[in-house]
Amino acid sequence: MSSGWKSTYGNVRSFLGNSMGGLRGGSNLASWVVAGTLAYFLWVKPSQQLRKEQQEKAKAAATDPNRYIEKQRPVPNPQETGLIYGNKNRGNRSADKE
Fold it and tell me: Transmembrane segments in this chain: where (predicted)?
């Protein structure tokens, strides 16, 4: 009767080994370490950092609403910067002529 639990243990061990890609020993451990490290730096850490920044912004805005200002660069007008050709600064030139 003792062979019953041994075969069950062997079947579970075989199933777990196959479910992890069939790798055994050091290569299996190394592949899981690499996958875990990549997952941490690509998904976990950025999401934690974003959540922390959002909490800091909310805390700063809640403590003194006049002190906290969202900093964004203004979007340049493509007509004035010369990205769109045509009537560039026509309004300013007519004012300069007079």
Answer: 25-44
Residue labelled with tokens 């805390």? 59
User: What gap in Å lies between CA 80 and CA 97, rounded to an integer?
Assistant: 18
pTM summary value: 0.43
Give the whole-angstrom CA distance, residue 72 versus residue 58: 17
pLDDT bin (cut points 50, 70, 90) of residue 1 is very low
Domain-wise residue ranges, the chain:
24-68
∠ CA 83-85-96 to the nearest 5 degrees? 100
